[in-house]
Specification:
9 helices; 4 strands; alpha+beta
Length: about 210
C-alpha cells in the first residue's frame, strides 16, 4: 500500500492526538512522547508498505490503516501496554472532533437502503479471500426490523497484529465499535463473540435507537 493518500491523511489527522495521549494515559513526558511519535512515523510507513493495495470496492481500508497507526505507536512505547489501558488510549486518540463529526454524518445513512445495499456488496465481495489484511462479512438483518448484524469470519486487524506480535492487544481496537456507534447517535452496538477472544466470528450488531431515547 502506498503511504501517500489515506495513510498520510490519517497520520495528519491523528498523529498528534496519539502523541498527546501518551502523556495522558501512560505518563510519558513531552520529550519522550515526541520521540515515540517520531519513531512511530517511520514504523507506520514500514507497516503500510507491507500491506497490499485494497480493491477499490473494499470499504475496510481505513480499518487496517488505523490498525497500522496504533501498532506503530505501541511498538515504540518504552513499555508494552496492557490491553485495558491501551483500550482507553486508543479510544481517546481516535475520538477527536473530526472523528465525532464523521460518526454523526455516517449515522445519517445508517439503516437506509443505500447502507444495506453497500453492506450486501461487501458481503458479496469477500475481499479477504484475496487480501489477508481485509475482511469477509455476512449480513443478517434482524427479523423484527430493529437493525442488523454484520458477522465477520476473517479480520485484517487480527492478521496484521498477529504478524507484529500484538495479537493479545486486538481487543483494544474492537472496543471502539461501541464508541463509534454511540457517537453516531442512531444505534446501540451489541456483540457476543470476537475472533480475538477465540469466538467463531466477530458479530457487530446495530440496533436502532428508539425515537426520543437518550
Amino acid at each position: 500500500m502506498k503511504y501517500f493518500g489515506m495513510p498520510l491523511g490519517m497520520w495528519v489527522l491523528f498523529g498528534k492526538s496519539f502523541e498527546r495521549n501518551l502523556s495522558t494515559h501512560f505518563g510519558l513526558n513531552e520529550n519522550t512522547a515526541k520521540t515515540v511519535r517520531k519513531k512511530a512515523k517511520s514504523r507506520y510507513k514500514e507497516i503500510i508498505a507491507r500491506v497490499p493495495e485494497f480493491e477499490k470496492a473494499d470499504r475496510f481500508k481505513m480499518n487496517i490503516v488505523n490498525c497500522a497507526l496504533l501498532c506503530a505507536f505501541v511498538l515504540n512505547m518504552p513499555e508494552r501496554p496492557e490491553v485495558g489501558r491501551l483500550t482507553e488510549y486508543y479510544k481517546d486518540s481516535m475520538m477527536t472532533p473530526p472523528m465525532n463529526w464523521f460518526c454523526r454524518m455516517s449515522g445519517k445513512n445508517k439503516f437506509t437502503e443505500k447502507d444495506i445495499s453497500s453492506l450486501r456488496a461487501t458481503e458479496k465481495l469477500r475481499a479477504a479471500d484475496r487480501n489477508p489484511y481485509s475482511w469477509n462479512m455476512e449480513l443478517y438483518p434482524y427479523s423484527d426490523g430493529s437493525g442488523y448484524e454484520a458477522r465477520f469470519t476473517k479480520c485484517g486487524i487480527c492478521t496484521l497484529m498477529q504478524e507484529l506480535g500484538l495479537y493479545d492487544l486486538v481487543p483494544a481496537m474492537c472496543r471502539l465499535d461501541y464508541t463509534m456507534s454511540e457517537a453516531s447517535g442512531v444505534s446501540d452496538f451489541v456483540r457476543e463473540y470476537t475472533l480475538a477472544y477465540g469466538g467463531p466470528y466477530c458479530d457487530c450488531g446495530y440496533k436502532k435507537l428508539k425515537q426520543g431515547s437518550d
